[in-house]
Amino acid sequence: MLAATPPMGWNTWNTIGRNIDAQLILETAQAMVTSGLAAAGYEYVVIDDVWEGPDRVDGRLVAAADRFPGGIKQLADQIHELGLKLGIYSSAGTLTCEGELASYGHEETDAATFAEWEVDLLKYDYCHVPAGADGPALYRRMGQALRATGREIVFSMCEWGTNRPWEWGASVGAHMWRTTGDIFDRWDSIVDIGFRRQIGLEAYAGPGRWNDPDMLVVGMYGSGNVGRGGCSDVEYRTHFTHWCLLAAPLMIGCDVRSMNAATAEILLNGEAIAVNQDPLGAQARFVGEQEHADTVSQVWAKPLADGSVAVGLCNLGEQGRTVSVGFETLGIHPDRSCMVRDLWAHEDVGTMAGSYAVGLEPHASALVRVTPR
Ligand code: GLA
């Protein structure tokens, strides 16, 4: 099955925005290999908007010749030689969000072109759709066109949650769908998208069908295209923890050619990635929140294939506090004690009866694995 676990990779948009070229994308792909990201599972190198040339040639999209002199096929070959996969971008409208040529009315030709280039993923946006167009029908059209190519291409819908895509995305052939507007490199954006607007969506996720709360901003520190102030390492760790629990596609957005040690430690946490990539494919459910004077702390729980539960305890507030989870709220019989493993400290905390509590600094999260004994 394609996208049996949430797709992982890197996308040009967050850091580089419009200024993309083949060289930079290849350098990034090489850095993904040398840094260990590729071995950790990040495999899709996704070209976002502004790769397109100004005109169709024989009815077909072509890459901007100055920035992609060898075309997309050559880049795909180079990426494949590194053991990685290539993603590309278009829109269901007449133009992309940045005003480049897009696929409305050209779905079959464009899907065939992408397949010929040996592209492995298509991110399909929603800008410039004609007034009155039926969004789901436009996505169905591209979904069918992709399937007709016979190539395995992950179909990544980006209509920002406009038409409740979680309800119909899988039925039009999509493997993942954005649930909200764009993420920004700010704490309040992470909280709004991750901790507020994913509640209840777990029913729609599973192998081959993922809710996408947008790309990671881990390691951007306010730089790049979606900068907006940046976050601390503690906040990036909470962001990553939560996206792992949400079974979200893990698309890195920072410049991995220059990522620092703190960023690498977050993105390469194999125990957190294993939660994200767990074969059961469950998305964490919102267990509940504790109210405090300033804000709340939240608990989320993701069932895992071996019968254990990954739990996120998140202090969304401005003061340090203790956050706790009762095992009964995880569906575990109250008489059973549980082994708790801290997936950031990489150690077993011990066997607990009834509940687990942890002290958390502002905006920090704990990620633990709770295994009934
Ligand atoms: C939209 C999408 C972004 C990005 C840009 C590119 O805003 O939501 O993720 O692809 O378009 O123009």
Write the layout of secondary structure elements.
Elements: E1 8-11, H1 13-16, H2 22-34, H3 37-40, E2 44-46, H4 71-81, E3 85-91, H5 107-116, E4 121-125, H6 135-149, E5 154-157, E6 176-178, H7 187-196, E7 210-212, H8 233-245, E8 250-252, H9 261-267, H10 270-276, E9 285-291, E10 296-303, E11 309-315, E12 321-326, E13 337-342, E14 347-353, E15 355-360, E16 365-372
Parallel strand pairs: 1-2, 1-8, 2-3, 3-4, 4-5, 5-6, 6-7
Antiparallel strand pairs: 9-10, 10-11, 11-16, 12-15, 13-14, 13-16
Helix pairs in contact: 5-6, 7-8, 8-9, 8-10
The chain binds alpha-D-galactopyranose.
Alpha-D-galactopyranose is lined by residues 13, 48-49, 96-98, 125, 158, 182.
Quick structural gist:
This protein is of the alpha/beta class.
Strand order of the largest sheet: 7-6-5-4-3-2-1-8
Helix content: 25-40%
* SS field, number of helical segments: 10
Tally the beta strands: 16
